[in-house]
Amino acid sequence: MPRKTRIEYPGAIYHIISRGNYRKDLFTIGKLGEAFEKALFEVTERCRWKIHAYVIMSNHYHLALELTEPNMVDGMRWLQSTFANRFNRFTGERGHVFQGRYKAILIEPERPLLGLVNYIHLNPVRAGVVSTDELKKYKLSSYPKFFKKTLGLGLCREEFLSILNLPDSLYGMRRYTEHLKVSEESVSGRTELARKYCRGWILAGKKFREELLKSYGSENPSPRIEAEGRKAMKSVGWEESLVKLLETQSKTEDDILRDRKGADWKVVIAKEMRRSTTASNPWLADHLNMGHPSRVSNLVNGSF
Predict the structure, then answer these.
(1) What is the pLDDT of residues 31-67, one digit of tens each?
(2) Structural contact between residues 143 and 135, judged by C-beta atoms closer than 8 angstroms
(3) Of 76, 93, 92, which is closest to residue 12 (Cα–Cα)?
(4) Which of 92, 135, 184, 199 is deepest in the core (most CB within 10 A)?
(5) Are residues 60 and 186 in the same domain?
(6) Does residue 150 sit in the same domain as residue 278?
(7) How far apart, in whole angstroms, are the C-alpha atoms of residue 283 and residue 238?
(8) For residue range 128-163, what is the model confidence (pLDDT) as tens digits?
């Protein structure tokens, strides 16, 4: 049976969950937790994601992710494969690192998002790793980072604070901590929380569900954006990035056609596009007039 197509659209919010293969520990070996966190911020920059919350536990992670363009699948493929390669190099192992397909549950903004953010931030508390008062000491989480004056790339606390009518500030976070303590005291058991936040394909009220299904013209609980539409929307973002990079190199469309396929400035742009976007080698080969996609790969990776 073919896998259900992921729903992707700008503004979509997901609860992403993924576990280590055979539930083995992934992130407690050496500095692999920090390595995964680094990869997460790298893909956040590439895909222009907004991160409302995340936590990295011993063998799994949770992520509250919002898209600015329909690239969740591309970004998650990059994140998990990149970390898997780094994990295997570090440990000397081979094979799959993550258990099956990651879960991506659509989340309605407003109260469901706030509940999910609370659920993610309180994971170390429910696991008995730290108390609520010690939660800022748990480093592999967005929670302590939201107390910094300058937030890391892609981190976004404004939405969940605004649901509580709190300002996007350190004062707002201190008030959120009070809310979190009350939330922890009043929550139901772990099984019920997991059932609410980790199962199904969507966490939303009836109205949001109906509007989503209506927008996609389907009563099937796996609506989809047509592939060509998704591809076109991604391409718009890639083209905007390419235009800006051409300006930094003082190059034009005419230069793309006139200069040789392996020109140094083209390689510089291709490397930056690969670093900061999910643009594919075929797309770069076509838009930079660099010949066959394999040539782009070799030039970007320094094989020539």
Answers:
(1) 999 999 999 999 999 999 999 999 999 999 999 999 9
(2) yes
(3) 76
(4) 135
(5) yes
(6) no
(7) 9
(8) 999 989 999 999 999 999 999 889 889 999 999 999
